[in-house]
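User: Let's play a game. I give you a shape written as tokens, and you guess the letters that built it. Ready? Here's round one.
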């Protein structure tokens, strides 16, 4: 999904403003910290702890308190990723499961990470039910959509792990070690491998349709408002999206651009000059037609239709042959309901629907990194 911002666009639906955590959210985060913050605490203290970078300006803010945030979300995106899901072993439930999972995450943390590699852990909604813990208020499975063709064996999961780095072999080896270490506590549910096409490091990645993907990722200030909660937590939405590359590439260039709402070469919105120019949803041709068509992906995914709310995309392409190519959509946001609202609009009339199909889905609560002993009252 490509998100654009136009200050002159009307607000059609406005999401709830970012709100302080409820008592239930605080309880959920505190009790669940027994599970995962032990697995994140060491990453917070290590040299690879996240720095906050403004990707538009290329500057890094040294004053922002990023220590409570897991790596692999808003730091620069490496070229490769392994995304995997695990389920709690069938014999583990309640307090016993909590203890076993906490110990596992301690062991995971002890595994060394190569330079530039990040590890991001999120908890799925079913895990909280299995452990008898109160789930965060906003953690819910993504509702079924009319065009979804989801394979349950390729989605969902109690524990989601995103590994990112520039060495694909090292990522695969680390993923195997995590799985081996998890034996007896977690069982593998699914895993996917993704990549970014070759590009200069400071350029927006392109997807398999050849279009820039992620142009409108939020800036540092916008991410503080729309991606990160005050305690350093966020939410991950994952979708495995099949792309019909052959049929899309068969379209004339002009028709491809009309479907997306951007020029293929520059990434600029139709009618604009530069990639990061704001899209003008009101601009019309001399014949009275909208420059950005009414069914263009960019128009329907416009952030102004959600009161300006933004999500941070960190997607990777996958290619398993001509019949199985697409996007591992990974997006981080303060409330997964934002993804649902956007996808419901796209589901109705997006011109890109002819060329994409959602085949797997997962959602997870990305706990803040921190001192697990303090969070546990120790």
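Assistant: Ready! My guess for every position:
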């Amino acid at each position: 999904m490509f998100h654009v911002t136009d200050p002159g666009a009307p607000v059609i639906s406005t999401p709830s403003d970012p709100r302080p955590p409820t008592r239930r959210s605080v309880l959920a985060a505190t009790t669940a910290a027994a599970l995962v913050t032990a697995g994140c605490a060491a990453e917070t203290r290590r040299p690879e702890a996240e720095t906050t970078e403004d990707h538009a300006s290329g500057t890094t803010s040294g004053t922002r308190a990023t220590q409570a945030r897991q790596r692999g979300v808003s730091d620069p995106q490496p070229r490769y990723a392994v995304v995997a899901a695990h389920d709690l072993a069938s014999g583990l439930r309640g307090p016993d499961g909590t203890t076993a999972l906490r110990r596992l995450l301690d062991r995971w943390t002890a595994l060394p990470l190569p330079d530039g590699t990040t590890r991001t852990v999120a908890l799925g909604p079913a895990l909280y039910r299995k452990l008898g813990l109160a789930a965060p208020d906003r953690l819910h499975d993504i509702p079924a959509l009319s065009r979804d063709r989801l394979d349950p064996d390729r989605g969902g999961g109690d524990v989601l792990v995103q590994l990112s780095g520039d060495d694909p072999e090292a990522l695969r080896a680390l993923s195997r070690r995590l799985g081996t270490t998890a034996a007896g506590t977690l069982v593998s549910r699914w895993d996917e491998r993704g990549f970014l096409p070759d590009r200069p490091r400071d350029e927006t990645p392109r997807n398999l349709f050849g279009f820039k993907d992620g142009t409108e990722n939020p800036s540092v200030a916008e991410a503080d408002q729309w991606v990160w909660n005050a305690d350093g937590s966020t939410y991950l939405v994952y979708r495995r999206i099949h792309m019909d590359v052959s049929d899309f590439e068969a379209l004339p260039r002009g028709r491809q651009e009309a479907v997306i709402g951007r020029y293929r070469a520059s990434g600029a919105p139709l009618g604009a000059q530069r990639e990061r120019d704001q899209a003008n949803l009101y601009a019309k041709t001399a014949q009275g037609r909208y420059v950005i068509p009414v069914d263009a992906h960019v128009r329907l995914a416009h952030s102004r239709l959600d009161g300006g709310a933004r999500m941070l995309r960190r997607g990777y392409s996958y290619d398993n042959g001509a019949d199985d190519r697409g996007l591992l959509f990974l997006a981080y946001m303060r409330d997964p309901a934002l993804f649902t609202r956007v996808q419901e609009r796209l589901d109705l009339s997006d011109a890109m629907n002819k060329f994409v199909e959602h085949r797997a889905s997962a959602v997870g609560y990305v706990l803040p990194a921190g001192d697990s002993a303090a969070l546990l009252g120790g």
